[in-house]
Amino acid sequence: MNTSESLLRIRDLVVEFVSDGRVSRAVDGVNLDIWPAETVGLVGETGCGKSVTALSVLGLIPSPPGKVSGGEIQFEGQDLLRLGPDQLRRLRGEGISMVFQEPMTSLDPSFTIGSQMTEVLAAHRSVRGSAAAAEARRMLELVRMPHAPRVMSQYSFELSGGMRQRVMIAMALLCQPRLLIADEPTTALDVTVQDQILALLDDLRRETGTAILLITHDLGIVAENCDRVYVMYAGRIAEAAGVDDLFDEQLHPYTRGLMGAIPDLTVKSARLVDIPGDVARADASLPGCRFAPRCPHAMAVCTGDPPAMRAFRGGREVACYLHT
Ligand SMILES: Nc1ncnc2c1ncn2[C@@H]1O[C@H](COP(=O)(O)OP(=O)(O)O)[C@@H](O)[C@H]1O
Ligand SMILES: [Mg+2]
Question: Which of 116, 240, 241, 242 could form a disulfide with 246 if both were Cys (CB 3.0 to 4.6 A apart)?
Answer without folding.
Answer: 241
